[in-house]
Amino acid sequence: MSLNILTSGNFSISTQLENKLNMAFSLICEEEKLSNCSVNLKILNNNEIQELNNKYRKKNSPTNVLSFTNEDISKSITGDLGDIAISYQYLEEESRQQNKKFDDHLIHMLIHGVYHILGFDHENNEMAAQMENKEIKLLKKINIDNPY
User: What is the model's pLDDT at position 32?
Assistant: First the structure.
């Protein structure tokens, strides 16, 4: 299991946050019984995530997190589940507005993004509740309060 973390621009994350992100990813893999898998996480600025959001979702605005499931034929061999893009700037502002710790919010968005890659969404209330419950359960294991 591996989480590959890349940053763009002037953003960097602490070793402590990187370790927490890796721990959160390991917990998801354990909880969902995934082995030999990886996810790529790229931390972007608002302009970069807005470009992705416009290109892939036809929404010309920044957002907090985007997930891209790996549909490649090699997925079963490589274990690469997909890619997650998170806007550092968007999360900074969202954290302030929602009175959340930035690190906790970033970890939550990683978990949220991985569940999207695994096929969960919030298009209907039943699946949204199931996804949120999974997120809350994992966050509690790493001492992060319910974000909802």
Answer: 95
Give a three-class secondary structure readout of 89-146.
HHHHHHHHHHCCCHHHHHHHHHHHHHHHHCCCCCCCHHHHHHHHHHHHHHHHHCCCCC
Alpha-carbon span 129 to 45, nearest angstrom? 29
Encoding tokens for residue 86? 């998170």
Mean pLDDT of 10-18: 90
Token representation of residue 45: 């600025």
| CATH (one of 3.40.390.30, 3.40.50.2000, 3.40.50.150, 1.10.1660.10) for 2-141 | 3.40.390.30
Question: What distances in angstroms separate CA 34 from CA 10, 22, 45, 89, one per listed residue?
Answer: 33, 14, 30, 31
HSE value, Cβ hemisphere, 13 Å, CA-based, for 65: 21
Asked if 86 contacts 106 with a C-beta cutoff of 8 angstroms, the reply is yes
Residues 46, 73: Cα–Cα separation, whole Å? 31
pLDDT tens string 23-47? 999 999 999 999 889 999 999 999 9
